[in-house]
Amino acid sequence: MSRQRRSKAVIDDGMNPELVNGADFDGFYGIPVIKKPKEIIIPKSIVPFSKLNKADTYKDAIATYEMDQKFSDLLIHPGKYVEVLKRHIFISLDCSLYRNAPYAAQVTNVYRSRAIGNYYQRKGVYVIPQIRWGNSLTYTTEVFPEKVAFLGVEKHSIVAIGTYGCSQTKDDKYHLKAGLEAMLETLEPVVVLVYGSMNERVFADYRNETKFVHYPDWTTKSHQGGDL
Prior knowledge:
By secondary structure, the protein is an alpha/beta fold. The chain is built from 8 helices and 9 strands.
């Protein structure tokens, strides 16, 4: 089989079951668990995966707050990045959860994010769970018995969320705030890293619920003349 066909098979199979050998699983959907770290470490900054060469060792978190194509290699060949990610903090994959996507696709992308995070954590990488929700089906139990957006994450830990591009419309703001409230109630995190804007209409009611640590998105930081 050619290299191209092997790569295509990995993408088509998608779930990479060998990644979760030895993992613990959460809930009816069997989402791999990213464990609560023994020590809470707050990164100095958050650097996109595509800018990995600009990250400070042991200080910066590597995240995937960018187009999915820019971090596809992490999904296809995660083993390639174990040693380099050990030198940083890693925020688990921010796989897209479009609100108009089928629920099955949204569940799948939650699984992918936790599976890769669990894999790297078991390889010795310091991993912070990325929490991403889609439509209300993912962060409520209105229809399904579990809030799938929060499965695979232990309570009273450190988590990360990305708001870049998520508060442009009234509907965006509604789901961002509703999902945030559901996350805080469900996971009770002690620290929430926020990549992107922190709209007061969304966050004001929850300032006392946890410790929020804000990071400007990479584009804004570069325009502000940040240390890139």
